[in-house]
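User: Thanks for the earlier help. One more: NAD(P)/FAD-dependent oxidoreductase. Can you show the sequence and predicted structure together?

Assistant: Of course, both are below.
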Amino acid sequence: MNAAEKTDEYDLIVLGGGPVGENVADRAVQGGLTAIIVESELVGGECSYWACMPSKALLRSAQALRAAQHVGGSSQAVTGKLDVRAVFDRRDSFTSNWSDDGQVKWLDSAGIDLARGHGRITGEREVTVTDADGAERVLKARHAVAISTGSDAVIPPIEGLREATPWTSREATSAEELPESLAIIGGGVVAVEMATAYTALGSKVTVIARSGLLGGMEPFAGERVAAGLKELGVDVRTGVGTTSVHRGANGVTITLDGGEEITATEVIAATGRSPRSGDIGLDVVGLEPGRWIETDDTLRVPGSDWLYAVGDVNGRVLLTHQGKYQARAAGDVIVARAQGEDVDDAPWGRHVATADQAAVPQVTFSIPEVGSVGLTEAQAVKAGIAVKAVDYDLGWVAGASLYEDGFEGQARLVVDTDRDVVVGATFVGPEVAELVHAATVAIVGEVPIARLWHAVPSYPTISEIWLRLLEGYGRDSA
């Protein structure tokens, strides 16, 4: 669409040009609607420039080196260390050097318009965009507005922390210089991944995690990752909090509960996320700015039949792949409602995000890796499900011992014994990420255990763990 054809009226207006917003708009356009994305930063969003892609690029070089060092024959050939500048340069290539030219070209090829600037809801089906020069443009939506503005890193209310200008995930994934030492406050995925990456690159890393590592996952996941970090040389402090932070001429000083002090070149705040919803006009529709935006399972905001919230900003699941999953459902249901078609909003229907509650897969790219999907044993019990948890040492699987000398890992399958279907799975060990999707399919498909016996894993691969877990559950139980 050339400049002369630009319009201020669209079927769909999307606030936020990250992967979620792009997918909502794309599905709508594929369904025959017109759409425009409003974005104040880089098209492609957090994932492309400050999260998924740069963080995994930083981690991959260390993973590849470690893999070579743990196989006899190749380990003797590996004599050097990571080239920090080469790792950073490879990371930069995956962010397109923080240029969104390619993403903008994709929008154009997909038939999606772009408005650069900050968007606010200023009326029913109305968004006002303010560009960098202060000029305003009013957009009207014939059918829907979708909020896909994402989330921001939380700076916890620790004395002096904000004044110490801590790194968040953004600075950690885009740094161009390696800090001599690094303190990380938090024990979640960002904390353990950045601890893994930076210690591999050569920083002296300390992790301060009051509640331990990877809370919300199976307990053995956090325990094994803590052990892995310590083996790498990370100073892991759990069960202790941070009292204050002070930045001086030579770095930061972190005071712990009890008075002990830790000094570091930089400090990362990795204690969670908050919705990016504070200045987008939520008050116009009767919602409180700065809060997670509640939706129904079709991602529509109750009380406004034209308003949707998709991705991180709704607080359902803060993962890029789940946001894109929501976006596909939201884009399709916006089309259906615009065209007067039936809405498939039954569980597992085309227009709902059922998997957000039942089958969320996630990989933590630490050393060892953690791959999980569905419910933990504790979550299943809390939900009132009669469960049996089956554990197996991954190192006993032939494919694992071939893959890496001294392979160490653990797997757990959580089975609903009333229905004899898998409701959760967790894998911890080198390169276990590729095991997760099979478990996801089993959970989403509600495949009976009796049928899973006929899904024969190839030998000798790490996937043979499925056979061992089924044997642990017991053929007589199926």
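User: Great, one quick takeaway?

Assistant: The CA atoms of residues 16 and 149 lie 5 Å apart.
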